[in-house]
Amino acid sequence: MSVLGETQARMASIRKLKTVVSAMRGIAAAHAQQARQNLGGYRAYTEVIAEGLGRAIELLPPGEAASPGPEQAARALVIFTAEHGLAGAFSERVLERAGDADGSVLFTVGARGLAILEQQGRRAAWSGPMSSQASGVGATARQVADALYAGLIAERFAGVEVVFARLSGAGDPQIVRRSILPIDRRTFRARRGEPAPLVNLAPRRLVEQLVGEHLFAQLALAALESFAAENTARLTSMESARLNIEQKLEELSVQERLQRQEEITAEVQEVTSGALASEPAEP
Q: 3-state DSSP call for residue 205?
């Protein structure tokens, strides 16, 4: 194959790569948009649960804890990372925020985070896949919540923290570390002046059920925030890749034009040389 042919073959291969990158960029943009559209509803849901929990806690007798547990006991640390690659250093940044976990029981969501942990020689007590669709984050949160409850019942830990990425304007995502359990009564205050709610359950039972709903709501919101941030990071990576590909194609196009001109020049020289050689010698 000629030098020009090799350049043209490279350009054809890079154009195919550009098609793949453009498709992945479009998918990431669609997923990020879907997640952003759902964030308002998830946030409103967590606020409603928090307000209801605050009103229910007010029904408890003075001094009775809403979610007892020794502060010095081990905690579960739920880390939301990416399920797929091509999202830059997204998962690495989340795990960096988690740090060495201070002896916490690690719950890892997302295949990329689990792979990084294994490379670091660290072990997760539980791991599960991150949802690949915005509509699936509820199911992901339910799986994590079930695993956490199993650990709480077995008394392997007495509290729950969560680490996830959250969108923050046009810059890099903000990495958040938040405590979910045990419940701090001071955090959940009912609105003053509102009448006491009518309930059919004993206050303690009502609070226990709302604590469970609060745990699920916080996990679902963290999962959706992470999903939005992950796909935004992937969109940025794919946009950067697209720009690099276009730059490379432009360089190859210039190279192709030069090589084509060189071939034309060489052909002209051959024709000229042939014509001169065929002319009869002067007497």
A: helix
Express each pLDDT in 197-233 by its tens digit. Answer: 778 888 889 988 999 999 999 999 999 999 999 999 9
Domain that holds residue 185: 21-190+201-237
Distance separating alpha carbons of residues 94 and 174, to the nearest angstrom: 9
Torsion of CA 135, 141, 144, 149, to 10 degrees: -140
User: Looking at the predicted structure, is the pLDDT value of residue 269 above 90?
Assistant: no
pTM: 0.85
- The Cα 7–Cα 225 span in angstroms is 44
Q: What is the largest CA-CA distance in the chain?
A: 128
Domain count, the chain: 1
CATH of the domain at 99: 3.40.1380.10
> Which residues have CB under 8 Å from 241's CB, separation 6+?
21
